[in-house]
Each structure stands twice: as structure tokens, then as C-alpha cells.
Amino acid sequence: MASNDWRKSVVYQIYPKSFNDTSGSGQGDIRGVIEKLDYIRFLGADYIWLTPIYESPMYDNGYDISNYYEVNPQFGTKDDLRELLDKAHDAGIRVMMDIVINHTSTAHQWFVESSSSKDNAYRDYYIWKDGTYDVPPTNWESKFGGSAWEYDDDSNQYYLSLFDVTQADLNWENEDMRQKIYEMINYWIDFGVDGFRFDVINLISKGGFKDSDGEGKEFYTDGPKVHEYIHELNRHTFGGRDIMTVGEMSSTTIDHCLKYTHPDRNELNSVFNFHHLKVDYPGGEKWTLAAFDFIKLKRILMEWQVAMDEGNGWNAIFWCNHDQPRVVSRFGKDDTEENRVKSAKMLAIALHGLKGTPYIYQGEEIGMPNPKYERIDQYKDVESLNAFDTMREKGLDARMVLDILGAKSRDNSRSPMQWDSSRYGGFTEGEPWISVGKDYEKINAAQALEDKNSVFYTYKKLIELRHHYDILTYGDVKPYLLDDDHLFVYERNYSEETITVIANFRDVKVPYPQGVNTEGEVLISNYDDKVAGLRPFETMMLYRQNR
Ligand code: TEU
After folding, report:
1. How far apart are the CA of 108 and the centre of ligand 1, in A?
2. 446, burial (CB in 10 Å: exposed 0-12, middle 13-18, buried 19+)
3. Quick one: pLDDT at residue 41?
4. Are residues 297 and 185 both part of a single domain?
5. 483 Cα to the center of ligand 1, angstroms
6. What is the pTM of this model?
7. Which domain holds residue 143?
8. Per the structure, how many domains does the chain have?
């Protein structure tokens, strides 16, 4: 660990199912993570975040937990997890677990009890409401399509499920339930984990159950008691301990995120928000093909950067995760090898100069593009499969729907990690659960490690810079040229130092910006020299002392 201050850390996110398979099952496992610790250590990340590895029927790949205390045998055993923690700690890497406490799987014992009868002691652990057979309690929509309410024949009531029907929302009003959650989190703290990522934690407080003019979001997003609950969670579990926390916040606001993360409030260390990733959702619609709105991207990122800095909050900064398409295909360009490498490095430098905790999602560090699936049977994600049906029902032509999934599906990030040029990219000796990306023979970790000019070494260098230059962690943020259609420019300032990041997001040459100080030592760049203008995707981080 480079520093004791969690703020200086960089996190590497692992989606174990698609990371590295050691058993030949075709699905990644915990031993696969152990095997790659040296790789992560070489990259330099301080933490790994493991997406859920608990017992689960896997309808939503582990975000549907059926037992919080057990490891899904598909991923290995608790001994494997123990060994992973020990070996990670020996390597100076800390481990964050993903905790899903907005909902559980309907296969969880609590839900089995809860749904068994209205009088069961666990009934109130979930959200049950009256409705009639064909009219649910409210018109809220599930985030994965369809109604957010599921009818239960036996009790003639509905339970709330904001995600898949097999993911039932917990009732945080229930004190017993909350205590059981705290016990469980303390169990994992005692087990030795170093941090938590809390899944959709800003949805836990539901306020009022009325019909909505939209999907229902206003009733449960950053709900009335959410800060009270998160504060209570903090006080009963990780608060005051050396545990790093990040909350995943769905459709949140800056004001709420300042509250979630202000150190005096004892809620969470940091937050993920997704506003900057919705810049290719025209009119809020994800399932379309649209170029991203670059000006909007900058405005949103910078608005959050400045406001969170000024209000003493803390952002997680990221382009990718297991729910998002690959950034090089999305905000960069992957049509030629040169564009892929240049734009992946551009995106890396542009992001890692920002204030907050940087997250790198497996494969991002080698510039993995979207896998370019061509058939519907290559998609596995419940959200994508539902979206496919909905778009087809609306009459969209199958080719068009596949193009949309090819750009937007969550499976774009879930294709297997490309380790080398051998069959299935070295991910498995068996049949992979999901197809390997088309370009694995050329784009893989073995190749990236060999080539000193690869995207990998840009990420490695960026982590070194973050550890070395305090200004990257603590400096404030000043945006420039917000209306420029090519350049993303900002300055960081800290005592007597300045860092300037200049990123050309386009594959054309443009002049150096006016009114921006472009002097200083080049800490990192994606070109070897400096010329009169900025070449396609040219990006640099400049450092100077102002004495
Ligand atoms: O995601 C929450 C969430 O709302 C999204 O990122 C979601 O995937 C997107 O809106 C769909 O378009 C978290 C997890 O990261 C995700 O994998 C889970 O499926 C979801 O919660 C439910 O637990």
C-alpha cells in the first residue's frame, strides 16, 4: 500500500465470472483472482473490488444474493476467499467486497419465509402491498423492464422488485432486518475485508407508494430516510474503522452526494454517480444508437468535480464497470489499432487527472473494446434479453436491435478478460459461459505487458503518478473551454503546484488552446514529442511549480 490515506488509492474492479477460470468450468473463480494477483500488483492498484461472490441463483450474476454468509460454489469456497485475502494482503493489495442490501434474491431464506404467509415473522422484511389481480399497487417500472411489482397468488399481494423479479426489495423500515444486515457486514469485517461497495444504496428508503408520471424513481431515489439509514449502517459497522466505502448511487444529485460523503456526517467515503455516462442516451433513452454528447460529458463531469471539491465530498471517478460498454468503443475509437491505443490512453489520462478515487475495470487497462457480438444467443444479461424482446415487440428490425445491443449491452463489459492469444484468450480451458471478444488474438494482457508502448503502461504510470503527486489527490479543480468541441481541459491546483490536463477527444489535429497555460513538465502523454498543434487524440498531463 503506497499510502495510509485511502484518498490516494486506485481500485481495480474484478467481475470474477469473467476474469479467470482455473477449473475449466467456463466461468471465472476466486482461485483465478489469486492467480492474477501478481498482475494487479504489477499494475499498481491498491484495492481490488470483487463483484458479488455470495451464494446466488445468478439470475443477475450474483446481485441476487440468496445467502450473505456463503461463497457461491461456482466461484470456490470460503477457504479460497480466505487465501485470496491473505495473499492479497501479502502483496499489499486490499480487498473490497460488493454488498447488495437494497434487495435479496427471492431464493433467500428471508424471502422464502416472507412469502410463505402474511403472518410470518419475516413478512415485513420485504415490501408487500395490496393490489388487484391485474392492477399493481403503483405504476412503477422495473429497471430491467416491465412492472416493478410481482403478484403473489397465495396472499393476493404484490412484492416490490425494482430490478429482476427474482430480486425483492428489502424493507428498511424494519428494524430487525436492519440489525441482521449490520451483523452480516460485521461478519465480513471480522473476516478481514478492507472495504465495501454498496450496490444501489441510495434506493433503500422508499417514500410513499403512489402512481408516478414517470417510472417511479422520485419515490425511492435518495428517499426520505436514506441518510438516516446510511448513518446508522456506518455507526453499527464500518464507522471509525480502516474500511473504505463507496456507494453506488442511481440517478442521484450533487446535494445528496455531498451529504453521503461529507466526513462530518459519518455516512460513506465516496460515491459513484452515472450522469456522465448517460451522454449517449438521447432524451434519456438508453436503447438507441447515438453519438455521445461531448460538451455535455464535460459539463457534467466538471460540475460534479467542482461542487464535490468545494463541498468537501468525494467522488469515485470511472469510465467503465460491469454494467457499462467499454469506454474505448464508446468515447474513443476502436476502428484501427492506432486509434484504439491512442484514444484508450487519452481517456485514461483525461480521467486519472481528476479529483476522486480512480476505478479501473478489468480489461480497461489493456484497452479492451466491446466484444462485437453478432447474434442474440451471445447475450446472457437479463437486462439485454428483456430489452431485445421489448424492442422487437415495438417492431424494430432484428439487425437494428443487435446493433443497439452491440453498443449498449452490459455484456459488452462481461466478455471474458483477454489474457493471451491462446484459445478463448486464455480465460478458460473449458467452454466460456459468454463469448470471447473478436480481437483477443491481438488485444490481450500478454501482448500489452510485452509492449512498453501499450495502454497498460499508461495506466501503470497514472497509478504511480497518483501515488507520487499529492496534488492529484488533494488539488482543486478548474475547468477550461467547456464549449470547445474537441478539447477537454482542466487544471488542478494545490499549494504552489499546478497540473494541467489537455485532452484532444477527436481524431483530428487542432491548435493548442488559447488562454490555457500549456507550459510545464510533461508527466505523461500518449505521444513521444510535442509539436505545433495537438494531433488526433493527443493528450498530456503537465506539471509546474508556481514560485
Ligand atoms: O446496478 C444498478 C443500476 O441501476 C445500473 O447500473 C443498472 O445496471 C443499469 O441501470 C441498467 O441499465 C447495480 C449493479 O451494478 C448491477 O449489476 C445490478 O444488476 C443492479 O445493481 C441490481 O443489483
Report:
1. 19
2. middle
3. 98
4. yes
5. 31
6. 0.98
7. 109-169
8. 3
